[in-house]
Hints:
The structure is a single chain. With 93 residues, the protein is of the alpha+beta class. It has a single domain (10-88), classed as Arc Repressor Mutant, subunit A. The protein has helices spanning 10-16, 19-30, 50-58, 77-88, and strands spanning 34-37, 40-43, 46-49, 62-67, 70-75. The strands form two sheets. Strands 1-2-3 form a three-stranded antiparallel beta sheet. The radius of gyration is 13 Å and the shape is globular.
Amino acid sequence: MLQTKDRPDARQIAGSLTRAQQDALRAIGFFRRQRKAGRGWRVGDRYLSDKIVGRLEQLDLVEASAVNGEPILQLTIVGEAIKGRLLQRPMVR
């Protein structure tokens, strides 16, 4: 992927994500069961707010689509690359 002013590379995006956004990206990539729940998303055993999902959509890491009429979240190619980078790094709590 070419880096331009409009689209930074995956390393810059991964470094700018908050911990909540990183956890949301990992959850979306890991859990298959996702559904829209009220004003947020239920992803596996986690609840993600619309604000976090909206920010990930703005960064083009996640896209909301519909399968069989039900909305789901999917990682984009850049989102998959960043998820891979996050999984290589040890999680600090």
